[in-house]
Amino acid sequence: MATTDTDLIIAGGGLAGATLALALSRAVPELRVTVVESFPLSPDAVPEDYQPSYDSRSTALAWGSRLIFEELGLWQRLSEHATPIEHIHVSDRGRFGATRLNASDHSQPALGYVADNRWLGLCLMRELLATGVQWLAPAEVVDMTPQPGGVGVSIKEGGDLRTLTAQCLVVADGGRSGLREKLGFQVRQQSYGQNALIANVSTGESHQFTAFERFTSAGPMALLPHGSPRRAGNQSALVWTLTDEALAEVLSLSDAGKCQRLQERFGWRLGRFNRIGECSHYPLTLTTVDEPVRAGVALVGNAAHALHPVAGQGFNLALRGLMTLVEQFRLAQSSGRSIGDLRVLRRYQEQHRQDWQQTVQFSDSLIRVFGDGSVPILAARDVGLVGLDMLPGAKRWFARKAMGTGGRRADIHGRGSSVGELSGHE
Q1: Which of 83, 235, 375, 384 lies at 20 to 30 Å from 76 by C-alpha?
Q2: What's the DSSP call for residue 320?
Q3: Edge to edge, what strands does the sheet with 33-36 contain?
Q4: Which 3 state secondary structure label does DSSP give 23?
Q5: CATH of 190-284, one of 3.30.470.30, 3.30.9.10, 3.40.50.970, 3.40.50.1100
Q6: Are strands 82-85 and 134-136 parallel, antiparallel or unpaired?
Q7: Is 61:36 a contact under the CB 8 Å cutoff?
Q8: φ, ψ of residue 272 in degrees (nearest 5)
Q9: In degrees, to the nearest 5, what angle opens at C-alpha 51 toward C-alphas 48 and 56?
Q10: What is the mean pLDDT of residues 406-425?
Q11: Is 416 in a helix, a strand, or coil?
């Protein structure tokens, strides 16, 4: 095997890149890992006490993701500020169909969790600072060229440009950096003609650790319990799907006007909306890369696939993919094969493909079915939601999708296992 400056370069030290680096430090500690991140990292950036902000952006973590973070030794600290989702309520605004999921029906304390992105990042950084992972920050991967036995990665650090050799480059810098396109990956994007408006809101009644998925004539909206992990409060994380025109109108309103408009769309299940925090928004597209690997390079996270946020599956899908990649790297390292070998990376792709195809189909079908306002489809939706609530088998399938407890994967120690088995399901 050719001598290289490092074994693996990860472009991007966000949630996906940092999680991959931590998992590799646990599963393959002999692997030399270098993370290239555009934001600086230092111990000073990891405070001892975390004080959540009202406007903190958050991520929905499925139950299966909790199991992964437990394997990484991260969950005990992460759970300090992770709000449990004990119930999920799915409904169609103005229709009678609805279905409800309860964690207790599955012998679990929660169906999932909601954690601030900044808290997730701080927990990962705290652990990574104690590992042998090398960080180049602030720095940026700007190009890559194949070389015998690996790749040459061009890195811009300050005003200097240098090249590091490695067995493999993993692109984990999201879907907007442009690096994957520069490297020649073919990206398919399908616009939903919608935008996601993200904000935290306060309501007159407690959320009781319930996540609401509300489908309306103007698009779906989700309210996820946010705030204290131990006491059910009145703060929720909002994901509101809006057309370009509706988004512009909502953004032009005062906070009171936004709350009133939200009330009209969501209803009164949580009482009166009395506060909305800072709003951010982004256009919604279904982004996929059919061939996310080539010799010496692999795409992960949003660089490989970006989903509609309707079912909160994006980061959870990425996390499962990362663990699949870690296992293939572990097997390659133990057999003396380069981790950038195309056969190694294709096995990762093949094992992850079914998961991402099914998850994309699940999320995309929800948008298409609930976005159709024709009378036959409206009636079918009512029947479907009521049937889902009444049929144990269908409800169990839906719960497994929501909890991310389906399919097989290997844990970071190389033991083949089913996430469903780990969580006590059949």
Answers
A1: 235
A2: H
A3: 134-136, 33-36, 8-11, 168-171, 297-299, 293-294
A4: helix
A5: 3.30.9.10
A6: unpaired
A7: no
A8: -85, 135
A9: 125
A10: 40
A11: strand
